[in-house]
């Protein structure tokens, strides 16, 4: 149920004067800081001052009871609710994202929803401060309820997606976990050192429009890098692309550079760039053409012979910028 709260302020805290004590929900509210009006939804998503992820609150004694958290959980998607929070005439709540999905019927009692907002629950949410959901990964910040969502979308401790490009792997984790996952589950090639010399071979290359070769992982400078090689269509032209991704955040990736070289028959192509973070998917990097691009005819020329088999040797090195 969603109640209208009547409160007065004593000694800097909210004191409920409309409900008898003994109700755990309202007892919990009495220990909360001053209730303020919630920000508009535009502020929740875009406001820099409210949502600044670099400004966590540090209140070690703050505890939010599970009963309050449950009240703010949408019964349909089970995610935390943000304004506008809707309710039916019986007081059952759900988030704005799920309202269209239930065809204007309360998922709890099946009554018509209408356009009733639960302003009291929105104000309760505005008074809360919660730990980041990536606390188990190392984030120790405490954030206002309406800032928490934006912080988590940018949190440097949020887990990474598996960088393997050969399948739609859904595994997530920190870097040490993903390195072990790539080695044990995907059986990728693991190499130590900052230089490499790889050979890519494919029979019947004219029949290949989209292909992904086995990922290679390099360990150097105390970091991990992923070398990708793929075939895809650039407009109507079939091409190959090689690029490097950094297993870490973008701000760390900018500390490194790499070069790639491919050639044959007295010609060569050279690419130099900055590795992209694995926060960017391999498809996003590929589709932005951020790597060494080789047209198929040029690749077959480099391969030599009768041009019926792809035989490319890609060499490269990684270095740390000073």
TrEMBL record:
Enzyme Commission code(s) on record: 2.3.2.27
Any Pfam family matching the protein: Sina_RING
Gene3D superfamilies according to UniProt: Apoptosis, Tumor Necrosis Factor Receptor Associated Protein 2, Chain A, Zinc/RING finger domain, C3HC4 (zinc finger)
Secretion signal span: none
Location of the RING-type domain: 74-110
Chemical reaction(s) catalysed: S-ubiquitinyl-[E2 ubiquitin-conjugating enzyme]-L-cysteine + [acceptor protein]-L-lysine = [E2 ubiquitin-conjugating enzyme]-L-cysteine + N(6)-ubiquitinyl-[acceptor protein]-L-lysine
Entry similarity comment: Belongs to the SINA (Seven in absentia) family.
Protein name: RING-type E3 ubiquitin transferase
Originating organism: Hibiscus sabdariffa (roselle)
